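Problem 3 from the worked examples.
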Amino acid sequence: MLAFADAVDRLNQRVANVVRWLALTMVLVQFCIVIGRYVFGYNSIAAQESVLYMHATLFMLGAGYTLLVDKHVRVDVFYAKLTERNRRRIDIFGHLFLLLPSMTVLLYWSWPSVRNSWKILEGPMSVGGIEAVFLLKSLIPAFCCLIILQSLSLLIRLLVQGAKS
């Protein structure tokens, strides 16, 4: 089981190593859009949409890594004051009864929309935009899968850690 957890961790690490460059690329593209518009009077809907696509990709595919390194949003009002054992219990509960079910439901309910988008190769959101909304929608199941896998990895580690103590 730990080999599975290690493989999932490596997967999310590799995905993060790729998508992190989108942050820099997004800034550069946005800079070019602003210069193009205000200096040269040129505007590109596709360039503007590319920033949206990069932003969505960065956050949707980087979420698994964020969970891996424990930088996700957490309300630490009580959690920080708890013992390690009680934190582990809360984490196990959160993975089993909150995170995994919610990601499963999101995956289930979004899949028909993603499937239909691929079926028609859904085009741009705006005239002159990027003709790949189906790719943008595909980020939803990818996000769910990466989060589910990372949640399982963390759950395995929490259970192994609990068994040792």
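Problem 4, a separate protein:
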Amino acid sequence: MSQFIEACIRANEEIAAALQNSFDDTWFEKTEIGAGGDVSSRLDLFAESVFVKHLSHFGQIESEESGLIGEGDVKIIIDPLDGSSNALSLFPYYGTSVARVNARGILDAAVVCNLANGDIFVKTVQNKTRQGKLFSADFQDPKTVPGSEIGLFEKAYANSALIAMMDAEGLKFRAPGAIALSLAYAQTVNFVLFVGPFRIYDFAAGLALCEGLEVIVEQDYVIVSKDIDTVKKLEEMIKKTRSLEKEEVKNGI
């Protein structure tokens, strides 16, 4: 592993160790609107401070919480707490994401970690994706499931018409609420779907882990799957719902 990847792992281990016994009551407090547009909690800011401590000497950090931190030709894009609402509700599906963009503008390293169960996924400078556990030196190829029974649909609550179409087609899904984590698990599920406006913090690292899968990234939706037919079917559904919405607006419905 590179020094950068190792530093990311140490940062995640420090955060995980702090969370291991119980949440500090002050972490639930809300502070102010962060650079990503959401209100930051003290837990978000704690996680950010750990990443800044471990990664700031590698380049300029762009964080969902505080925006640009430090200087440098290398940019490190972080979401210090992916799935903040889950974490603050003690729902065990939350983690972190880090992506490094080198001086040539190429994303050459990424790390996504599930703090709730210790799964960690890394994209190395050799362009390989590896999966391991926090506090363990063992890494392997990402696990994959050929006949996945469910997909992951982030932001499903805002897309009722699309949900109805998917139900009619028998496309089962869950909506766990942490997009970087969901993208990291793309090898094990039927699909990962996000529909709505999105920010670079949420997707940079997760998408870097999806190399070799079928991926569609548009302005307001992202589809990832092992199966090209599933990707095409979902995109057709999205376009159909958009068409129906336009007709409803046109007819004043």
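Solution to problem 4. The chain has two domains: 3-140, 151-250. DSSP finds seven helices and 15 strands in the chain.
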